[in-house]
Amino acid sequence: MRFRRFLAPLLAAPLVATLALGSGCETSAPTPRLKGQTHLTLIHTSDIHSRLYPYNLQLGQVDAGLGLGEALSIANVGGAARISHIVGRERARASRVLHVDGGDCFQGAPVFNFFSGEAEIRALSAMGTDAMLVANHEFDRGALNLGIQLQNWASFPVLAANYLLEDPSQPGASPLGAVLQPYTVFHLDGLRVGLIGMGNLSSMTSIFDAPNRLGITPLNTVEVAQFYTDLLRPIVDVVVFVTHLGLDVDERMLQNTTGIDVVLGGHNHIVLQPPKRVRDCSANFDAEVNSYYIELNDPNAETGKIRRYCRPRDVVLSHSGAFAKYVGRLDLVLSNDPADFPGASGGESEYDPVNGFEVVSKDYRLFPVTEDVPEDPIVLATLEPYAQSLDALANLDLLVGYARDGSRRFSTSGGDSPLGNMISTAMWLRLGVQTDFSLTNTTGIRADLVPGPVTVEQMYNIFPFDNSISKMQLSGVEVQDLFDFVARRSAGRGCVSQVQIAGARVVINCTQQKTPDSPPGVATNIYIGARNPKVACTSDAQCPDKGLGSCDVEAGVCWQPFDSLASYELATSNYLAAGGSGFRVLQRNTTQFDTQIQQRDALVDYIRAGEPCTIRPPCPADANNNGSQSDECGKLLGLPATCTNDGVCDHDEPIGCKVDADCTKLDKDFVCACPESVIEGDVCSSDAARPCAAGTCVLRACRDDVAAFQRAVCENAPTAAIERECEQELAPCRTAGETCKYLACVDRYIGNFSDGRIRMVGQ
């Protein structure tokens, strides 16, 4: 059979390795075969995404509910050394135990950008990982880089059963042929556990292109899963799959196969608490023989398919989160005693000896990786050189701005998000770009902007990919095709927008269809650019076409409907321009020009160009809120100011002060920053007896947070005396006050808000 011929090269090495386990000069008595109930513990991590060092995270409701801390608080989470401590502790509390990593340990923090995955593989090896799956982001620096890192540093089996690698004897051979294997077998005190890996297919750039750059041909998920299950079943007691397919594909795989006991999944960055129980062999039912069945390829059969009849069983499906926030522990009670599997109403046992040990019961615990977890010194020592090198190579602690309230990458409405709008605006207005509109993928924004000081490191966390900005010309027809694709993709993902845009507005209908046979998802009410001449509005009804979303309420102007006969210039990431995430409408465009300006750099420069956090009090009652110069605002602030359409006093110059009261009378959240009157402490304060000659009003939280950020430099001092001396030299409060006079403010004045530019209909 053709499929089996494809798999033959992959099977040879693992089979030889498995047989070799029993060879050697010395022999020992074989471990007796187990009977009846026994235990197995599976420790699972996945989607670490280079979060090898602890980081700050503003917690949402989901993470708070899973034990990371209180909702909306800022928690210090993650870190490979903390994960290693949890893994080691749980190993000590179990007898038969495996730690399996589900892939995507690459990409997501600066350590990957500078060391290409070396630190990630070394960290997993140092913590004693038993096996790892290769997923999509392991290929972000190419197959050659992955092969080098695994060969140099991996001390564990690396799995991927659903990749057919190129023949090593041919030009362009994959460097992974010597390091990847489809499965591995563990002998745990008499229990034989077969572990099969299923890598990601849907998100791997160019894997379906011919010829592709990775040297990989993807194989059919169901066929591969059933093939290796059948192969291992006679020689193992338990079949465990570690996958990076995503929840939906995991479930479809199980429903169309038989014989799998447990699936440890990843890719969606979710936690299943408790794990799901999915019925295998449940997709097809033959009423004539009153039995379920699975379908497998057979070119010799009349229909090309053969049926295998089987009895549905419950399979445990577990996902354990992402970004080094959690470690999952799955405890299984297994048995090969028919008495443990009684049939309905106490009838004949449903146990099938072919399946070896089956799951009787399970218990799942999720361990949050918080700052209360100690750090494993071995992993800490392994990672220390990389941390020192990062300090030398890139000043990751360099401040970019101050985020008073942070910025979310997802919107509660499913449409445009505050961070997405700010990023797309940074691309759209970047000098050297400046197109009609911009578009970037939502999933490319990998982290929220945490409230507090914004550092270069956070910019890497938000934009870990080294993607640049590409420009291209699109016809009106291509613009419609582009947004229709976005609509279909968004409809298939819970009616949540998969892009973020600037310079345009659109309504995405997740239920409408272009034709009766087409998938749901249609883009309507597309607007590009404001009307010229300007048309003021406060609602859609005041715009000439009265279309949904035609009024930009934030700016107070109507937008221009796009023209299908016109031409528009788009700014997007080079990843999407190359057809990434399925954007074929962009890939086939022949007008592309890569500006070589990284998205990350555009965002950094855009934030830095903003003003510091400043006082903008409400306009006095007698001021004219028309955006013109206002004597009333000027008198209130003591400098030239205007009364804006929002009814606040806007100004370009900093507000001077001598004591805190000069600032707090205008806004209680502001204080007077003055080097000669500041009092150092855990909370910065001012000495009213020493008024400042020429101070500036700054945000109180900015001064306190930046001072704490500066003070952290001294925290690891060997003695308390040295720590005090370090703080005296740094003068954190004085330095912070001066810094906040100039540090850019991440607020709505640079577009950090949702304005309904992407509206989702049909959720």
Automatic annotation (TrEMBL):
Q: Please give the Gene Ontology molecular function terms for this protein.
A: hydrolase activity
Q: Can you tell which superkingdom this protein's organism belongs to?
A: Bacteria
Q: What are the record keywords, sorted? A: Hydrolase, Nucleotide-binding, Signal
Secretion signal, residue range per the UniProt entry? 1-22
All copies of the Calcineurin-like phosphoesterase domain together span 41-270
Q: What CDD domains does the record tag this protein with?
A: MPP_UshA_N_like (cd00845)
Q: Give the matching InterPro entries.
A: 5'-Nucleotdase_C, 5'-Nucleotdase_C_sf, 5'-Nucleotdase_CS, 5_nucleotidase/apyrase, Calcineurin-like_PHP, Metallo-depent_PP-like
- The keyword Hydrolase appears for this protein: yes
Q: Which residues form the 5'-Nucleotidase C-terminal domain?
A: 410-587
A Pfam family the protein falls into: 5_nucleotid_C
Q: Which family does it belong to?
A: Belongs to the 5'-nucleotidase family.
Can you say what this protein is called? Bifunctional UDP-sugar hydrolase/5'-nucleotidase
Specify the species: Polyangium sorediatum
